[in-house]
Each structure stands twice: as structure tokens, then as C-alpha cells.
Amino acid sequence: MGTKRISANTFAVQTKPKRATCFISLQSGVFTLDNAKYWYLNYIYNFMYKCPDRNRFHFVLADTDSIYIAIAGVPAKDCHQQFESIVTDKQFYDQHVYNYLPDPNKDIYDYKKILGFGIENEGYELTSLGPKCYSMIVNKWNKEKQQYEFKPKITSKGISKTQDISYNDYVNVINKDIVKKGSNGTLKMYNNVMSSIQVEKYALTGFNNKSIVLRNQCCCPYFKGLTAKDYIIKDQ
Known about the structure:
Elements (H helix, E strand, L loop, with lengths): L1 E4 L5 E4 L11 H23 L8 E7 L2 E6 L18 H11 L7 H4 L11 E8 L2 E10 L4 E9 L11 H10 L3 E11 L2 E12 L6 E3 L5 E3 L15
Antiparallel strand pairs: 1-2, 3-4, 5-6, 6-7, 8-9, 10-11
């Protein structure tokens, strides 16, 4: 996949394996995807549909372990106001909000709590044309001024390095089925030599490669060459 020279006689080489071995059962994959979907619905129906104004937020898209929500907050405030401006039942919100969202008065263990939501990015604009074709425009944090500056950059989940994503990339993904690739930086140690490696990943695609939704709404793992018709549904 790539080679990088790190010294006179040392090269960092990254190869793409032709085969992959997986010892996880199909049942484990089905449970993981279905369980994630269950907790999504629990959060939506038992929290989002009970206290915020349903006319002022929109579920843009969701993945196995992430969710994107567009919020019509107060225009005079910045993009970090979260749900505080659209809450209709303040008592219910205050009672249950930190069962899901991180409590700013607690430590990292609360931020990483099981079945909780950790906020990764907040921005003023989110573009989503498909399950794997979305980007958010976020603002950069100025360490010296200790504030956010309106210098937007486009970011896509799973891609750590800033990508050059443009309008034409979205058009090509939708109309021409072209995959927009990106890269992630990682560190690897070999023979006591630390190397920086760039790993190629997909930034924009027009398909979901993680799950197949059957007619009974069950989520099943995606396998190359299989479609929803290849799964057998046992009716109750």
C-alpha cells in the first residue's frame, strides 16, 4: 500500500493483506448490530421525544456507534449550546440528561461511561447524502485565545487528517459511484524505531458496508457478495 523512507537504510512498508481471518460467530455480529439499534431507539423514544422540542431537531444519520443530530438552537449563541435552547420539559431533561450525555462536572470516566454519548464534534453545517457520504464543518479551537474561531474545516468521521473534500467529491460518489479516499496517521514500532505511517481509509462512499437491514428490521453483518435475500427470516 505504501513505503516511506525513515533513514538511510530503514524503510517503513505497509502492505494490504490478501486474506483476513475472523473467528467471531455470525450470531455475535447480529447481536452487536441489533443491540446498538435497540439502544438508539431507547435514547430516541425515552429521552429525545420526551423533553426537547421535536420541531427543532432532526436526526441526520446514524451508524453502529455514532449519531448525528441537527439542532435549530438560538442563532445568537454558538454551535456548542447542544439541547439547552430547545428543551420543553426542563425537569425531565435535568433528571435524565446525564444518563446519556457526559456531565461536565465529572471526569473522563463519566465521559466514557457504558451506553453513554461522547461528543466528538460540533459545527454549524452537516452535509449528508448517504449512509457513508457525509461531512461536518467544524470550527478550529484557538489555544492562545481559548476560544473557537470561524475558520471552518471539513471533517468526516473516522478520518483524523484534514481532507480536501469538495462539492465534486459528493457528486462523483452519488452519480459515478466513485470512492473518496482519505488517510489516517498512526505510529508503529519496529526494531526500536518509531515510524509514522499514513493508513488509507474511505472518507466518502455511497454505500453502507457494516450492516444489512432485513424486512423485519433486523440488522445483519455485511459480507461481500451477500444481499438481504441471502438471509433466511424465521417467522414467529
